[in-house]
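Help wanted!
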Amino acid sequence: MNAIYLVQFGTIDEEIISPLEVCLWQVFGFDVKRLNPLPDPAFALDQKSGQWNSSLILKDLVRRVPDDAIRLLGITERDLFIPMLSFVFGHAQLNGPAAVISLARLRQEFYRLPPNAPVFHHRIMKEAVHELGHTFGLVHCHDPLCAMSLSNIIQHVDKKNGELCSNCSILFEEFTNHRRRNNGMEMQR
Ligand SMILES: [Zn+2]
Ligand SMILES: [Zn+2]
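Answered by r_m:
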């Protein structure tokens, strides 16, 4: 049985990971498992910006995808960037095996506001669904409430739901059905 795997860089609060597992299972319908935590991704630190290069982290994650994984999602506290973009909440390859999300800009404290755990947790779920959605072939959605809508700023994240809109759900179903058909064909050979 294929599973979505989670892996944390450094230590991430269990209160974050456990509800995220349930959320991802509900949205995508795959079992959710974990890999042992990885050390801090020091290899991806860009001295100039003081941020972590998400492309390098993705490259590292791709090498770690377990055999029974359908996808691997990395979670880091580090602030991520992609060259050309000053920061990203997360990064994934379209149809790729791995994705990564950063918690750095999801806390209210980052915006000099009082802590708000429910808001923080909700944002994590939305970003995890968004980046994993890309790995399942979903592109940005025009529905601002859909988890697949593009978020350049935290207000966009807050506007959307942690779920896929009906269109994106259909595309995701098509993706998984296509996969099942292909697996079936492979087994017949
Ligand atoms: Zn996106
Ligand atoms: Zn959508």
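OP: Thanks! One thing I noticed: The pocket of zinc ion (ligand 1) is lined by residues 130, 134, 140, 150 (CB under 6 Å).
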